[in-house]
Q: What sequence folds into this?
């Protein structure tokens, strides 16, 4: 693995009002890897992703994507810089069809040809979406929606994919499928992923590295395998 | 039977105007959740612009085109300059600001053009059409009005459905935050929504004013009925706006024709109350129709 960095979060401080939710968080994400961000409810995991994408303005710190600082830029600018954020609770646009959701994701591609190529590739990989392309996205099942939002994010060929709690509300069997999909995308398409999960066990099963947040601070950071075997850490912060 | 035909066709013709105003309100509501109380005032103002161009050049169509273009620009400028600072603020701010725009535009029109009633030329003859000896209750100009509003609605529908700009507009209307995360520059999208609304409103202004005279308050009552049409249609749906306009036009035409024209405003209010009591979210509030 080289020294290249796809995404660097440096000393990020952010919060909605009063005490900071993120209290000086620094994380490095290497290209083509999955980094899991773990921690209990309220640890600041979702706020971390929302701050990276500009939905929350940081009070301090930098967000570097390929060396360019994106902190304090609006979400649309961060997306245009190559950061795709799949928000918690999924975020399909229920009123649009499956295909319209996908096309929306592909609008950042430069040419019409690139957009249709991306759509064709997407349908090839995700047969279930091709079957349902004309249906309103709101009619899909929870698992299908999770696949749709990930596929939609991929339509823009992002440099970094931010995934917020993809297991939320899904049956264990579907969670395993979604995790397997993310692993495949890393292995086959060298996708870079920052994965926020409450379900630490399933996140670490596919991650290269893990970062544990507690009360807005990074309390542990190491390879995924070591985190899985660190019994004290697991008991204390991850609850399994 | 003869009367029924006249009232029905006449009502549909007027309903097209309400439909256009309703459509412009829906365009802004969908994108920004703002009810634009200045829509009528904007249409009045662009109609003055049209009248000046027509008087200057002697060509109706030049005035028509300039009115639409100035509606487009006026909508965009107002959104950028006045509405942008109050987006994401409490809804009451938007109510007060758009009413403020209305008062400003009506005052400005009075200062520039004076308060007297001016006649505004129609595009085509306003002599009633007949088939044999049967009067139809509509004129060539009414047919043009209907064709123009239908064409504008159709073009909007095509824009929404088949272009990437339309996809951005709809995505922003349904879920602005998700749209932003996908790189949609929603600031531009909202400006475009206001510009399109300004254009459709300007169209309504030049189409209705031949039958009402032009003065600073000339669009007020038409705005109220256009608003009613938009609510009947559910405020969300462009198709609902058009259908709501036509229903309202016909109902008011029957009320005025059979019962007396004094009753028209009461029936307008009655129609609004009836719809709000039976279907508070409007006739076209289902998601299936919202996709249009």
A:
């Amino acid at each position: 693995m080289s020294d290249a960095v796809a995404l660097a979060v440096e000393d990020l401080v952010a919060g909605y009002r009063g005490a900071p939710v993120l209290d000086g968080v620094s994380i490095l994400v290497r290209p083509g890897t999955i980094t899991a961000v773990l921690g209990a409810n309220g640890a600041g995991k979702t706020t971390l992703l929302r701050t990276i994408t500009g939905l929350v303005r940081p009070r301090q710190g930098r967000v570097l994507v390929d060396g360019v600082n994106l902190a304090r830029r609006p979400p649309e600018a961060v997306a245009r810089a190559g950061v795709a954020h799949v928000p918690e609770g999924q975020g399909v646009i229920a009123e649009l069809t499956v295909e319209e959701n996908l096309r929306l994701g592909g609008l950042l591609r430069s040419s019409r040809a690139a957009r249709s190529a991306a759509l064709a590739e997407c349908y090839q990989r995700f047969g279930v979406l091709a079957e349902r392309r004309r249906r309103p996205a709101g009619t899909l099942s929870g698992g299908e929606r999770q696949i749709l939002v990930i596929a939609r994010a991929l339509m823009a060929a992002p440099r970094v994919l931010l995934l917020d709690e993809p297991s939320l509300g899904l049956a264990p069997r579907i969670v395993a499928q979604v995790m397997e999909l993310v692993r495949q995308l890393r292995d086959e398409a060298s996708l870079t992923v920052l994965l926020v999960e409450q379900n630490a066990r399933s996140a670490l099963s596919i991650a290269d590295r893990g970062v544990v947040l507690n009360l807005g601070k990074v309390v542990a950071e190491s390879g995924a395998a070591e985190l899985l075997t660190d019994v004290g850490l697991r008991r204390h912060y991850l609850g399994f | 039977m003869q009367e029924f035909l006249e009232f029905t066709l006449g009502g549909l013709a007027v309903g097209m105007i309400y439909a256009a105003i309703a459509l412009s309100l829906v365009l802004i509501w969908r994108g920004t959740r703002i009810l634009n109380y200045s829509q009528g005032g904007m249409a009045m103002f662009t109609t003055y612009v049209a009248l000046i161009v027509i008087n200057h050049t002697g060509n109706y169509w030049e005035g028509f085109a300039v009115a639409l273009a100035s509606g487009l620009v006026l909508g965009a400028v107002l959104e950028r300059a006045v509405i942008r600072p109050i987006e994401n603020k409490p809804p009451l701010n938007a109510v007060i600001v758009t009413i403020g725009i209305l008062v400003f535009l009506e005052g400005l029109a009075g200062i520039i053009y004076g308060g007297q009633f001016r006649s505004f030329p129609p595009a085509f003859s306003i002599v009633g059409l007949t088939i044999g000896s049967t009067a139809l209750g509509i004129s060539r100009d009414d047919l043009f009005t209907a064709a123009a509003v239908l064409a504008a609605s159709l073009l909007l529908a095509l824009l929404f459905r088949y272009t990437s700009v339309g996809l951005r507009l709809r995505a922003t209307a349904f879920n602005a935050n998700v749209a932003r995360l996908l790189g949609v520059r929603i600031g531009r999208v909202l400006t475009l929504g206001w510009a399109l609304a300004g254009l459709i409103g300007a169209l309504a202004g030049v189409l209705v004013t031949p039958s009402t005279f032009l003065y600073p308050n000339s669009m007020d009552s038409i705005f109220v009925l256009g608003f009613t049409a938009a609510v009947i249609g559910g405020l969300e749906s462009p198709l609902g706006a058009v259908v709501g306009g036509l229903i309202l036009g016909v109902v008011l035409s029957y009320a005025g024709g059979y019962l007396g024209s004094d009753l028209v405003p009461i029936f307008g209010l009655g129609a609004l109350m009836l719809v709000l009591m039976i279907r508070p979210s409007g006739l076209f509030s289902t998601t299936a129709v919202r996709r249009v």
